[in-house]
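dude i think i finally got it to work??
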Amino acid sequence: MHFKKFHAVLLSFLFVISAFTGCSHPVKKEKELKKVTLNEVTHSIFYAPQYVALEKGYFKEEGIDLTIETGFGADKSMTAVLSGDADIGFMGPEASIYQYNQGNKDYAVNFAQLTQRAGNFLVSRKPIKNFNWNQLKGKTLIGGRKGGMPQMILEFILKKENMNPKKDVKIIQNIDFANTAGAFTGGTGNFTVEFEPNATLLEKQGKGHVVASLGVDSGYIPYTAYCAKKSYIKAHPSIIQGFTNAIAKGQKYVANHSPKETADIIADQFPDITKNDLIKIIKRYKDQDTYKENPSFSKDGFMLLQDILEGSGELNETVPFSKLVDTTFTKNLK
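look at this
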């Protein structure tokens, strides 16, 4: 009897100890997380793998407590990085080229790529079967900010189609990115270039019809990438590696799962969009191979980007790939 009582007491003691140990472990792990601020150019379904990585806890698995802020423009996101308000920036890599050519000593370097096609679409007021870009001649089009990737990709496509962007089409460039769909609905322009969800919403409202994908017609381009200042990368290589690992996991998930499964994961990021619309948009992007399946950043893509910048008159001198792209972290993925 004494042995049984002793055994029972011992078991109770061990249970209490293990309970306390179990409770304390997550707290300790939480304290070990490194706080990192990411400034994204905009909040878009176009970046689905990033939000999968966030919602699935991939950043925390890599020891990162991530805060995401939205810059609403590549210039603003880059300013946040260079000023130290953000640790990592997410935007078109053209912004890193601009700031490098401005002579910044502690310039921002790209270390991972998320998307490999443009994410915007050409929307017409009326449905057009067998659309051809030459049908824009003489028409008014709501475009993007001068020097920004959406506008330069548009000009790149028009030139491929033997059109002169400055003469053959009237392109409106003074409407803020967030207001282009509203301006189009209000009667401005014959066409507009829109990202999702605006392209799908215009179709749902019967106000517009997607007639072309700028991502498909421009080809593979390093459209959005992650960057950080040289000094930050040098001081925090483990954070950059962990961040890259998390993004890679998010990309892998999207590549290997259905649009519905991805939509289920990121739905809380887009509360104003219905689940059906979210699935439709993710499918549209996935079908045209928009999302990269890994975060590697190729030299060919970087040089093509600079060709586009030169063709738009935004670049006078090219920058060596080795200066603005660090491939260390994509080579060392888990």
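Residues 30-117+221-331 form a domain with the D-Maltodextrin-Binding Protein; domain 2 fold (CATH 3.40.190.10).
im so relieved honestly
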